[in-house]
Amino acid sequence: MGVDAERVKKVIEEGRAVVGIELGSTRIKTVLIDDNYVPVATGSYDWENKLENHIWTYSLEDIWEGLKGSYQDMARGVKEKYGTGIRKLGGIGFSAMMHGYMAFDETGSLLVPFRTWRNTITGQAAGELTELFQYNVPQRWSIAHLYQAILNGESHVKDVRYFTTLSGYIHWQLTGRKVLGIGDASGMFPINIGAKDFDEGMVQKFDELVKEKGYPWKLRQIMPEVLTAGEDAGVLTEEGAKLLDPSGELEAGITVCPPEGDAGTGMIATNSVAERTGNVSAGTSVFAMIVLEKELSRVHTEIDMVTTPNGSLVAMAHANNCTSDLNAWVSLFREYSEAMGIKADMNQIFSVLYNKALEGDADCGGLLSYGYYSGENIIPIDEGRPLFVRTPDSRFNLSNFMRTHLYAALGALKIGMDILVKEEKIQIDKILGHGGLFKTPGVGQRIMAAAMQAPVSVMETAGEGGAWGIAVLAAYAVKKAGNESLESYLDYKVFAGKEGMKMEPDAKDIEGFEKFIETFKKGLSVEQEAISKL
Question: Which ranges of 270-367 would DSSP assign to H, the alpha helix?
Answer without folding.
Answer: 324-339, 346-357
